[in-house]
Design a protein that fits this description.
This protein is an alpha/beta fold. It contains 8 helices and 6 strands. Helix 4 packs parallel to helix 6.
Length: 190
């Protein structure tokens, strides 16, 4: 029997409770063996804040998932460098792990954006997309996406970076270990 693995990609700058809730809901709904959080090196659809190092993003992500046995990190895009096209990454993962069935987890914002993805037709035949609604975005797409019901929480890393920069509270929005890491390393200060 093939191993069933969910991949949740993102910048994770910082990783927040919305990411963890999505991962947990998909894990439970589809009875997957694991969820891997995969930080992008350079996402093709947005700018990345280079003031925060890849190492810091990885450390925050590892702190966020610490103690959850079904969650791990997948660093293939960080190690590969360059633009993080999902097609290239998933092709590499499937070659590396031919006995694994991959589910690529996306939020409503990315469901809407699917027609613009690099080699989307080939990618949609290679993996199963799993979509989670996100407030303010449509889930309409010409591509096959398996929708999972999950609590809709309007959280974004951008909002959390701005809040951290302004000295606002991050309590109940980020795991405590991530908040501690941000404070100890003085991340997002202006």
């Amino acid at each position: 029997m093939k191993k069933q693995t969910g991949i949740l990609g993102g910048t994770f700058n910082p990783p927040h409770l919305g990411h963890l809730i999505i991962a947990n809901e998909v894990l439970e709904a589809l009875h997957l063996d694991e969820i891997r959080f995969m930080p992008n090196y350079v996402p093709p659809h947005k700018e990345i804040d280079h003031r925060i190092s890849d190492e810091d993003r990885i450390c925050m992500l590892q702190a966020a998932i610490d103690g959850q046995p079904y969650f791990s990190t997948e660093l293939i895009e960080i190690k590969r460098k360059g633009t993080s096209y999902t097609f290239d990454t998933m092709k590499m993962l499937k070659e590396r792990e031919p006995e694994t069935e991959f589910y690529f987890i996306i939020g409503g914002d990315m469901i809407e954006y699917l027609p613009k993805w690099y080699k989307i037709d080939e990618l949609s035949r290679m993996i199963t997309f799993v979509g989670v609604r996100r407030p303010g975005y449509s889930v309409e797409t010409p591509y096959p996406v398996r929708l999972i019901e999950a609590p809709e929480i309007h959280l974004s890393s951008t909002m959390l970076r701005q809040r951290a920069a302004g000295g606002g509270t991050l309590r109940y929005l980020l795991p405590e270990q991530v908040i501690d890491y941000i404070k100890e390393n003085r991340l997002y200060e202006t």
